[in-house]
Amino acid sequence: MIALENIELRQGSFELSDLSLELASGEYGVLMGRSGCGKTTLLEAVCGLRNIAGGRIILGGRDVTQLPPAERGVGYVPQDRALFPTMLVREQLAFALVLRALGQAEIAGRVDELAELLGITGLLDRTPDKLSGGEAQRVALGRALAHAPAVLCLDEPLAALDEELHGEMCRLLERVHRETGVTILHITHSPSEARRLAGCHFRLADGKVTRDENRSCA
Amino acid sequence: MSAPSPSGYHVASDKPFLVGLGVLGGSYLLIIAAMVLADLVFLDYGDKPVLGNELVSHGKYAGEYEKGVPIAVEPGRAYHFRAGKNEIGLRSAGRLITHNGLFNADASEVVLLPREPGAPITASLQPEARVAGITITNKVVNGVTHRLARITTDVPHRLLWKEFIRLSGTGQSGWSGVHEITDTDKNVITIAAPTDTVPAPLQLSKPNPLVQALRSRDIRFSIKLSLISCTLTTLLSLWVAVPIGYMMSRFKFRGKPVIDTLLDIPIVLPPLVVGLSLLILFRYMPEWLSDAVVYKWPAVVLAQFMVACAFAVRTMRVTFDQIPQRFEQVALTLGCNRRQAFWRVIMPQARGGLLAAGTLAWARALGEFGPILVFAGATRQKTEVLPTSAFLELQAGRTEGMLAVSLIMIGAAVVVFIIARTLGMKRIFA
């Protein structure tokens, strides 16, 4: 689950205060808002990449407000994906597992499992510069899911893809959600994209997060 | 007034602009290439004869010398002639000699022929020195016996102690080849004798300056010191430049503009002043430290480091600036701490920049002269690096020696750049 309680964010002259959001365990949350309204900043705060001036962040029942990003149990897929240019796809997927000092066999098993889930088995020995936009997005997802985080944060995962790939990626995200049971927070600026996605919908506007009561979260 | 029709609109051709770029860029590249080429071409790579004293005296082609200046020579002996800008050539018993180089005298007199009367004499005529005799002596110094060969020449040879000489025409191993002159007198050269028996015919020549330079113990030492000190400086510079570059690129802190300015000081300061400042700084250091550094080899490394490191820091900072912070952020969420994110994600991407910084630091260090001269001195076989050698050669009046040292530096720089390039390429093609 994700619970944000009275979050206060400051970045230069930009300020957000008293933000609250609650997402139950295993739910798919979509946070909408115009460009520049602070969505990415909020997501970074959830991941621990940005200090918050006040409030509490609770992930999976733990208060993580004071924890470094590494200990929060989050998977983060930034808008530009930021695949590590010097690593093979296989190494990217294994990155979080190598850090956790897992055995080689275990890592290989997990990498194969992820590759199958995301349909990137054939890409494992490529470098990121040899991937298309959709492929890179899948790899970034796989990398973020490798350590089985409780929460997956997606920053505009469909923005850089062409229309054709949108539907495919939406189905993939739903499948990932179904099969891993991870709590997802997906942010987007596009209402039409949001409409396609199931789950709970939130709107960040005028410094407030409101829940779209017209939709059920199921 | 009607507006110009769209079809009437023409944009000027890009050609002048592109040609301009080409000409400006090309001329710069041409100057660089010509500069290096001039060094390579200027050196005379062949051996030179050993020459005696100048026979031509100063004066003018005037009065009784209006038609030419007679010079007494020895028939049959080889002389080296070089015409100046005021001479047609040399008349030797009816033969006209115009080319520069050795010729054999035909009679007991040659005549320098002027281009026009009244002009100053500018030619040069020197006899070739030949071996007149060799004696082998044993000299005992501190209980060690040295076998020495004293080579007597028929005319004064004008060679100096520590110069090199090539013996040829012996056909006997040991004697043929380049030897260091250990002692000289007006007509005598002493070298270490290779064997007890003296080979019958022997010819003397001066080996080319590059051979002389590479054989010289001083210059060998300076090559060694340069290579070691530059490498040490490069490693030190990278060791410092990586953390500073990363810090300046990633973190905001109080006093950052001040530090930024400080980092640039070695770049803008005249190099000589850097050396002087170091010298003065070490007056305030404890005695043992200043004794160990000043005018010793550590001073060479420190002087090189002060300047080279500033360039390495610049390069590393730009390198890190070009790597988006996102990579670290993702690495942090995946379970890295800052140190792990730096070593696992950022440094592998910074390898090209690291290589560039290293090469730049190495090349800067190789060329450093002013600060070393002031801070480490120019003591032969002690703090002599290649630029110091070039300077000392020039001071001793051996332009060719200086050029030879310059060529060694060019060679070293080219080799390092090729190594860096190949390593860089490997990264790209891997």
Summary keywords:
heterodimer, A: 218 residues, Rossmann fold, six-stranded mixed β-sheet, B: alpha+beta, MetI-like fold, 3 domains, four-stranded antiparallel β-sheet, 17% strand, extended
Describe this structure as you would to a colleague.
The complex is a heterodimer of chains A (218) and B (430). Chain A has helices at residues 39-47, 89-99, 104-118, 133-145, 163-180, 191-196, and strands at 2-11, 14-23, 28-32, 54-59, 62-63, 74-77, 151-155, 183-188, 200-205, 208-211. Chain A is α/β, with parallel strands linked by helices. In chain A, the strands form 2 sheets. Chain A has a 6-stranded mixed beta sheet with strand order 6-7-8-3-9-10, with helices on both faces. Chain A has a 4-stranded antiparallel beta sheet with strand order 2-1-4-5, with helices on one face. Chain A starts with a strand and ends in a 7-residue tail after the last strand. Chain B has 430 residues and is of the alpha+beta class. Chain B has 3 domains: 49-127; 131-207, Beta Barrel (Elongation Factor Tu (Ef-tu), domain 3); 217-429, MetI-like (MetI-like fold), CATH 1.10.3720.10. Chain B is built from 13 helices and 15 strands. Chain B has helices at 15-42, 209-215, 217-250, 256-268, 271-281, 287-293, 297-321, 326-333, 338-349, 351-367, 370-375, 386-395, 399-429, and strands at residues 48-49, 69-72, 78-82, 87-92, 95-97, 101-104, 109-114, 124-127, 131-141, 144-153, 164-168, 177-180, 183-184, 188-192, 203-206. Chain B is extended and about 95 Å long. The mean pLDDT of chain B is 88. The A-B interface holds A 44, 47-49, 68-70, 72, 74-76, 78, 80, 82, 84-87, 95-96, 99-100, 143-144, 146-147 and B 324, 326-327, 329-337, 340, 344-345, 348-349.
